[in-house]
Design goal:
Elements (H helix, E strand, L loop, with lengths): L12 E3 L4 E2 H9 L5 H8 L9 H20 L2
Antiparallel strand pairs: 1-2
Helix pairs in contact: 1-3
């Protein structure tokens, strides 16, 4: 039986200008950042050309909904 490839966790750069990954932004959201400005202050993502601000906003929305659903089910 062939071996399955090792499980890989992918990381995506959200802010190319500052080299900030989706993992880093997710980590800051888990630590309590809930606005784009707070993300900018924590890791500088979205402070240069600002082309990633839409993606940061989407991550904030998605993860806050996921957190809300998790707390509602308890």
């Amino acid at each position: 039986m062939p071996k399955s490839p090792p499980h890989r966790v992918t990381t995506m750069l959200v802010c190319i200008c500052k080299g900030v990954s989706d993992r880093r932004i997710t980590e800051e959201i888990r630590r309590g950042a809930c606005t784009v400005r707070q993300i900018q202050e924590c890791c500088q993502a979205g402070t240069d050309c600002k082309s990633c601000v839409r993606q940061i906003r989407q991550m904030l929305t998605t993860q806050s909904h996921a957190h809300q659903a998790a707390t509602d089910s308890t």
